[in-house]
Amino acid sequence: MIEIDGSSGEAGGQILRTALSLSAITTKPCHVFNIRSSRPKPGLATQHLTAIQSLAQLCDGELEGDFLGSKEVRFYPGEIRSQNLNIKIDTAGSITLALQALMPSSLFTVSPIKINFEGGATDTFFSPTIDYLKYVFLRILEKMGVKTEINIIKRGYYPEGGAKVETKIFPSKLKSLNLTEKGALKKILVISGASDSLKQKKVAERQIAGAKEVLGKLKLPIEERTEYYQTESPGSHFCIAAEFENTLIGTDNLGKMGKRAEDVGKEAALELLKEEKSQACLDRHLADQILPFMALSSKKSRATVSEITGHCKTNIWVIEKFLEGKFEIKNNLISWNLK
Fold this sequence. Notes:
The protein is an alpha/beta fold. Helix content is 32%, strand content 30%.
């Protein structure tokens, strides 16, 4: 059984998601302890519990210690099966983080897997927005041969959640990733959305206006999408996806009470300019999210990243415990080398 100390590195929920996901794929049992030890409320929160229980269902696995607040779990994976998963999240738990746990395993099936979420949040704090997932992360995975479909039926924000999302993940043999030159910037997509209750204040439009104050420096056409939704809680989301010849980089942000809508867009745009100036092919958030897929590909993969974050280093540490290979970091280039 592979032992994983959850207090290592950045000590967050990513350790748990990566460990159990790779455990399911490799069929190597694992024991994760000291889960989220550095967080204000250590142990399993609802979104972590939902993700690992769904993963256990996907691979006919057995879990020990799967209850709210638990600081350790043991996972005994079975065989990954093609099936439909209906996941109910009673809180504003992140749907995108649940998908991070389920997606790698879902690629190793013989037929597509449908995962339907009822409840939870499409856009919440400390996790990627669903637009970033859809228009940046999944677009990079397409380069590795991954095919997915996402249908956002209802948005969900903190604190009530209440989202509804349908996803479909197709079996894929992962191709290697080779991203070292991003090429010229081709276009910028800006997606701004908010609850219907904020439509009169033109929150979505004002978020875009704030971003355009900054993005005007790039002197490129900007494709704008403004959206309003019926939601259980008032809120807003914002995402920028910059498409280059060879890659995509993105940033996102969320509105909150007392914060100017213009500042939501401006902050995301300033972060995008910072990422663009780094000349790296992957932004700092995508850098750690893509690592399990690089390691599961059939050949050597490599990519330049804007920053080697603590999340990135921690994910490398977990992945190397399960898979026969090694990551190499040289300046801002991350390479996965098979043994």
